[in-house]
Every structure is written in structure tokens, then in C-alpha cells.
Amino acid sequence: MIQERRGFSLNGYLIFVILIALHISFLLVIDSGSELAGIVGTVLTGLCWPGFFMVQPNQAKVMTLFGSYVGSVRETGLRWTIPLFIRKTISLRIRNFESAKIKVNDNLGNPIEIASIVVWSVTDSAEAVFEVDSYESYVNIQSEAALRNMASSYAYDPQDEDGIALRSHPQQISEKLKEEIQDRLGRAGVTVHEARISHLAYAQEIASAMLQRQQATAIIAARAKIVEGAVGMVEMALERLHDKGVVELDEERKAVMVSNLLVVLCGDKSTQPVVNAGSLY
């Protein structure tokens, strides 16, 4: 595995001044009569000019010589190196990649649609250039593959209290997705800074059925809460009536009262009162 190492380069501004001075001195040598030495020196000086190159902030120059890697330059500004070195520019800036919406089965076999956003950057220029054919294409393909594998490992909705699901645990899922992508992209000299799900939904063919199931679950949960509160209110009413001695009720009357209160408190529609104009019994 080829890893990044520092390549040979010098301050380009200093070398520029030196070459100008050498060029002028060799012209003076030619004028003084030593034409051969002056011409040779001028030619050699001219051959050094292609060694200048510019490095922008958050860029690296990967240098090779006759097919061999000789190092990378990250120092910004005007630099100079041996003119025979072939230099390739690699951006080290942070980039965003948003995957397309893909259809995959979750852990329970339900088809879902999912997409992700990956924030990444190149941290090893040598691996990015020499370990993969095209590191940008590699990032795109491997990110989608990692997303597909991660989505099939979890259910869309939680199945128990301790279970991790795609919809209910976004933080844990994001961390798992980041680890999954980093494992695949590490060999290409790429570091994943963030990975998160940008789209998550049931596939169109089952979306309606799953929506009904979610609604039913919500209704059951709400009804359970209502019944729990209603039972507490009935208990409190019976205790208050008994403690204050407002009315003495036998077991049959208590049952009727409890039934009426539960109907009033648990009903999803307003109740209509019935006035008893006759005797209580």
C-alpha cells in the first residue's frame, strides 16, 4: 500500500530570484567572451523554469518520476521542484455527496426507500491516486453500497423497547452508517466526517398499509392512556363520595356508576344525558 510522504520542493520565490540572477550572470559571461560556458549555463537555467508550480490552500501535488511515487507537496504558494517530476493536483477540501434514493428491504423484509448525505475529504493524497482508479467514483459507489447494507440490518420501526430502528434512532444510525462507509473508503485515503440519512420512507407499494398500521398503533396507545386516566378518575370519584358520605351505594349501584363514568370518559363522542324523572330505584 502506497502512503503519502513529503516530497521534495523549495520556496518558489527564492528559486525565482536565484534563477533570474543566474540568467543575468550567464548573459554577462557570454558578453565577456566565454560564449560556450554562458550558453550552457543559460540552457541549464532555462530547463529549471518548468519546475515551478502553485499549490492552492487545501490542495496537494502528487509527484511521480518515471512511474514511481516520489512524494506529495502540501505547502501553499509558489513552489519549485525537479522539472522531471510529473505533478497531479488533488483537492483536500471537504465535499458533500448525496446518494440517490434506493429501494432496499429492511431487517423485516419490508421494502423501504432510503438516501444519505456523506461529508468527506481526501486525507492521504497518495492512496487516493494510486490505490483506486477514481477516488470520486469509488466514494459514490461504496457509499451507496454501505447504505444498502446498513439499511438491511435494521428494521424501519422499533420492534421492542431496546431495539434500534432506522426511524426512531437517527443518531445511532448515523454513527453506524459513518463507520460502515469509513471501513470501505479508508483504503482510498478518504476520511468520512459525517454521514446521515436524508430520506427515509416505506416503498410506495406498501406505504398505504404501513400508514394504516401506524395509525392503528397510535390509536391503541392513545386509548390505553385514556382508559388508564379514566380508571383513576373513577377510583377518585368513588373514594370522594365514600369519604364525604354524600351517598351510600351498594355494589350494583357502584357497577352502574362505574359503567356510566367509563362511557363518558372513554367515549370518542360527546354523550347525551338522560334525565330520570321518576324514582332512583
Automatic annotation (TrEMBL):
CDD domains: SPFH_like_u2. It comes from Shewanella submarina. Signal peptide: none annotated. Residues 50-214 form the Band domain. It holds the Pfam family Band_7. This is SPFH domain-containing protein. The lineage of its organism: Bacteria, Pseudomonadati, Pseudomonadota, Gammaproteobacteria, Alteromonadales. Keywords: Membrane, Transmembrane, Transmembrane helix. It is a single-pass membrane protein. It is found in: Membrane. The chain crosses the membrane at residues 12-30, 36-55.
